Amino acid sequence: MARRPLPRILSNGGARLARSRELARTASDSATDVLQPLITIARGLRRMASAARRRWTGTPRERRGALLFLVASVLLVVALMPYGPLLAAVALMAAAAWHGRDRPPREPEGPGDSGAQRLTALYEALVPYFFLAEDPDPLYTHGGSWEKAFPAYEFDDTGRFSRLVIHYPAYFKDGEAASRARIEHLLTAKAGRGREYHFGWDGEANHLTLTVLAPLPTDVAAQRFVTAPGETVLGLTDPTQVQRTLPLTHGEERRDVPPVVWRTGVRSTEPHLLVLGRPGTGTSTLLRSIALQALHHGGDLVVVDGGGTGEYACLTGRDGVLAVECGLSGAVAGLEWAAQETERRLIAVNHARQEGRPPPDDTRRPLWVLLDRPTAFTHLADADGRKDPQALLQIPLRHGRAALVTVVVAEQLDAVDALSEAVRQHTRARVVLGPAGADELAGVLGAPPSTTPGDQLPPGRGHARLGTGPVLRLQVPATPDPYDDATTDALRQKVLELLPPRTTPADGEHVPGDPGDPSEPGGGDAPAGPSDRDLDLDEPSPAGEETVLAATVPEAVPAAPTAAVSAPVPTLDGPRPTPREPVPTLDGPQPKHKKSVPTLIKP
Ligand SMILES: Nc1ncnc2c1ncn2[C@@H]1O[C@H](COP(=O)(O)OP(=O)(O)OP(=O)(O)O)[C@@H](O)[C@H]1O
Fold first, then answer.
1. Is the pTM of this model over 0.90?
2. Measured from the CA of 481, which atom of ligand 1 is nearest?
3. Residue 306 CB–ligand 1 contact under 6 Å
4. Keywords on this record (predicted)?
5. In the prediction, which pLDDT does 519 show?
6. CA 170/CA 575 separation, integer angstroms
């Protein structure tokens, strides 16, 4: 059947319609331009009329008669004057045009009543700190005015300060931490507790800027961070303090968040990290997060857990995890091996340099030594008359940077005194999690933070300082123990996905199943927690009966760990075992294996 053409109005009606709409718009624009003076005058007349009406209603009744009489007299005079009505009409039009002109919206004037009250109260509170009797023209004085002292202020919807600039006298000792802390403490109390503030001291201009900080996101979970090898994300911080951002996945959406990135390796100026916090503030979580990132970048891990709660059990037997030690003997053996491995690497690198060769491959794989609560072992060793495992950290801490050996120590704040001198001296990257006083923070970080901690800190919230850098607010990404019953399924799955696969055990050793990990044969049904959970700190296993926690090393990197058991280990301090001689451990010599380290401790 032949197609019938559409009616013209339908076939090209759309274009016509658009054209006519365009024409109408142009015509209306031109008309508006032409009639603009009339529109302005009309708007002015309306504004004047409403002003007159307001004036009339605002005039008391008893004076309205007089006002009416005055207006009538003026009108009469004008009417009787030569050209009076004409001049009056011209004047009226001119006045209407003036009042009808477009005016930019007026800035709200002043802080309002409640704002002024807050500013006055704050000003009075600051007087004792900023007043000097000898000052001939004091900026702060009792009964004085705050206008000159607070050049800029902003309030939030609830009427509390969101930003405030405070001008202080030049003689105020802003270079002294104690003086600054007193002012910050006062401002925190006056500006409203329960929020976190940033204090920006501008010593040159004698200005202090108080800014309310938005809470750091607590809903970011462990994930693959877009970082280069040698970079570890400790957590998230404020955009004002860091230039860089990382794209992070948060639920379904992706957003750019400023991270605290810690650089390790040969060029690092702070190659080792100390994490402190009160119990339950998230120090183990941060160590787990670091472990996952280290494994992702191809590092080897030795984990020493003095907490003894099995929070690192999920790492046991994973590719790259050399040992997860919860007992004193295991800890000592693991750390002894790490010290010897550091030396071996150093010497190998030195030889290679002297011979003009690049460093051998088996010195290039980063080795991470993670210690959670090492002071628990110090007490145990002391009671037992055994060697303090912390003493073994001396070499990795002092020489680890050149050997790509990184030490991370997590400890409780009140056990700082029990940390060895070497740990305190060589851990120049510092993190403090959870509530801590300004003095405590300054003592650990070497400088007080420029922000105040809130009253209620979520787990994983704290401060970080890398070397001599600024003190940064920190929120550690949620990286819970996947074997913990309290962990939600979504988070458990996220952490399990980040774990490397299990290494095939050597010597037919059994590597425990992964409860909840569907990829593990029998994993879903396995009892929660592998064997290291059962280790009792108070009862160190007898020599030769220590539970094997980690057994193997991937084939791709045979040299590093194998060296621990079979390669010659020259030392910095003195003679070491001769070639082919196994490194002695507390539990006796180790068997030799071609591709794998059987154990750090004999089964
Ligand atoms: N960054 C975080 N985000 C969300 N929850 C966290 C975070 N850090 C820790 N938590 C939660 O807080 C609790 C304590 O964490 P964690 O075990 O890491 O603390 P801890 O300082 O090691 O305490 P303890 O020494 O008692 O083991 C856990 O339930 C953990 O899931």
1. no
2. 31
3. no
4. ATP-binding, Membrane, Nucleotide-binding, Transmembrane, Transmembrane helix
5. 40
6. 63
Q: Please name every residue paired with 277 in a beta bridge, in sequence order, or none if there are none.
A: 412, 433
- Which residue blocks in 168-272 are alpha helix, DSSP H? 177-191
Pocket test for ligand 1, best of 220, 284, 305, 409 (most atoms within 8 A of CB): 284
Proportion of the chain above pLDDT 90, given as a percent: 46
Ligand 1 atom at minimal distance to the Cα of residue 487: 31
Is the Cβ atom of 427 under 6 angstroms away from ligand 1? no
Give the C-alpha separation, 385 to 586, whole Å.
14
Return the SS3 of 505.
coil
| Domain range list for the chain | 112-213, 231-565
Binding-site residue ranges for ATP:
277-284
* Nearest 10 degrees: Cα torsion 147, 150, 152, 153: -100
Query: Is the CB of residue 284 below 6 angstroms from any atom belonging to ligand 1?
Result: yes
CATH number for the domain formed by residue range(s) 112-213? 3.90.1150
Task: Indicate if ligand 1 lies below 6 Å from the C-beta of 280.
Answer: yes
How confident is the model over 206-218, as pLDDT tens digits?
999 999 988 888 8
Do 576 and 569 form a contact (C-beta atoms < 8 A)? yes
Q: What does the chain come to in residues? A: 603
Q: CB of 277 closer than 6 A to ligand 1?
A: yes
Distance between CA atoms of residues 488 and 466, nearest Å: 32
CATH (residue range 231-565): 3.40.50.300
Lookup: tokens for 134: 């000898």
Q: Cα torsion for 107, 113, 118, 120, to the nearest 10°? A: 100
- Over the stretch 569-587, which tens digit does the pLDDT of each residue have? 333 333 333 333 333 333 3
- 85 alpha carbon, distance to own chain's centre: 74
Confidence at 567, pLDDT banded by 50, 70, 90: very low
Quick check: 258 and 238 in contact, CB under 8 A?
yes
Closest by CA to 418, choosing from 385, 387, 374, is 374
For residue range 153-196, list pLDDT tens digits in order.
Answer: 998 888 889 999 999 999 999 998 889 989 998 998 888 877 88
